[in-house]
Amino acid sequence: MHLSELTDEVEAVSERYARRLGFERDAAWFLLKLNEEVGELNQAFLMRAGQARTKGKSAEELDRDFRAEVADVVCQALLLARFHGIDLEAAIADKWLARNPDPSARRGGA
């Protein structure tokens, strides 16, 4: 699946969520929601690392929660980029892949 296809699917879920709960997803919401999810990722990491209360969760549950929070952060970042009209694949290529000494790893590689 391409990043744009994944973003389309995530957008559909997010839009339904906002419509069902009756709120507008504006610029502030996208950024604050990402911040909220990063906070939840921090908590899941601390619990998994034994640096916060585990609330009786098993190691498997803590791993599952950590994976889920990483997914939430990635999805919210996709949504934030889409809202602001950012071509995320191009931005990643410019920011990250341009620094890769292997030219075949760059966007549209050889």
Overview of this protein structure:
- The chain is an all-alpha fold.
- The protein has a single domain (3-105), classed as Helix Hairpins.
- The protein is 67% helix and 0% strand.
- It has helices at 3-21, 27-48, 59-83, 88-95.
- α1 crosses α3 and α2 (27-48) packs antiparallel against α3.
- The longest helix is centred in the middle third of the chain and has 25 residues, at 59-83.
- This is NTP pyrophosphatase, house-cleaning of non-canonical NTPs.
- It comes from Saccharopolyspora kobensis.
In short:
With 110 residues, the chain is mainly alpha-helical.
- Helix vs. strand class: mainly alpha
- Give the overall shape: globular
Total domain modules: 1
What integer is the average pLDDT?
94
- Number of strand segments: 0
CATH homologous superfamily label: MazG-like
Order of helices and strands: HHHH
Radius of gyration: 17 Å
Protein name: NTP pyrophosphatase, house-cleaning of non-canonical NTPs
Q: Which key terms come to mind for this protein?
A:
110 residues, mainly alpha, 4 helices
List the helices and strands and how they pair.
Layout: H1 3-21, H2 27-48, H3 59-83, H4 88-95
Helix pairs in contact: 1-3, 2-3
Protein name: NTP pyrophosphatase, house-cleaning of non-canonical NTPs
Organism: Saccharopolyspora kobensis
